[in-house]
Amino acid sequence: MALLVGEPVLFTGLVFLFSLLVGSFLNVVIHRLPGMMEADWRAQCAELRGEVIPETPHYSLWLPRSACPGCGHQITALENIPVLSWLWLRGRCSACRAAISARYPLVELLTAVLSAAAAWKWGVSVQTLGAVLLVWTLVALAFIDLDTTLLPDSLTLPLLWLGLLFNLDGRFVSLPDAVIGAMVGYGVLWSVYWLFKVATGKEGMGFGDFKLLAALGAWLGWQMLPVTLLLSSVVGAAVGIALIVFVKHDRRMPIPFGPYLAGGGLVALFFGADLTQAYLAQF
Fold first, then answer.
1. What is the pTM of this model?
2. 67 pairs with which residues across the strands?
3. What is the mean pLDDT of residues 268-280?
C-alpha cells in the first residue's frame, strides 16, 4: 500500500489494467441484462395470465459462456483478452470470420481510461473506489440506454444508494448536499416529464432518467446538477437535431437521454467544481 501511495503512476497503471477486465465484463452486462429483463417480464406476464411458464435454458451474466452469434463458436480465454484479442483477431471470429464490432474494445478502453483518470485524480483513497464504481455503472447504463432506451432499476437504484453511502462522511460532498441532490435530481426531470405530458399529451422521457439524475445528485451533490443538466441537454439537443437533419431520423422515434446524462455526470465528476467556479467568476 505504501508503494502504491508513493508511486501514483504504478497505481494508475494497475487501475487501468484491472478496469480493462471490468470493461470486458461490462460488455456482457450491456448485452445480456436487457435480455434477462425481458425474459423476466415475459415470465411475470405468463404467471399473471395463469399460463405454465416453459422451461428455458439458464441465461445470466455468467452462463452460458460468450459465443459468436454467427456460428456459435465459444470464445476461448485467449480470444477474450481485452482489446488485444480483438486486434489479434483483426476484428473477426476465429471460426467463421464474422465481423466483431469495434464497440467491444472501445467500451473496454473507455472504462479503463476513465477509471485511470479517477485513480490519478484521487490516488489511493476511498474516493477512487467510489469514482470507479460510478464510472463503471455509468458506462453500462449509457450503452444499455443507447441500445434499448432502457435504464434498468437494477443499476440506477443501487447507484443512488451507493452515492449516499459514500457521502455519509462527505467523501465527495456533504450528506445533506447528497440527499438534496438526489431529491432535486429526481424532482427536476419528474417535473419536466409532467409539464411536457400535460402540454403535448406525450411522454418526453422515461422514469429511468429521473432515477439516473437522482443518483448523480446523490454522488455529486445538488451543486453539480446544473452543470450536468446543461451539458447533457446541449449535447443531446445538438445530436438529436443532427440525426434528424442529416440521418433523417424519424422524429417519432425516441432518442435516449441516458448517455448524455451519464456523460454530463462524468464531466461534473472530474471538472464540475472548476467549471462552476469559472462560471461564477464571470459575475
1. 0.94
2. 74
3. 86
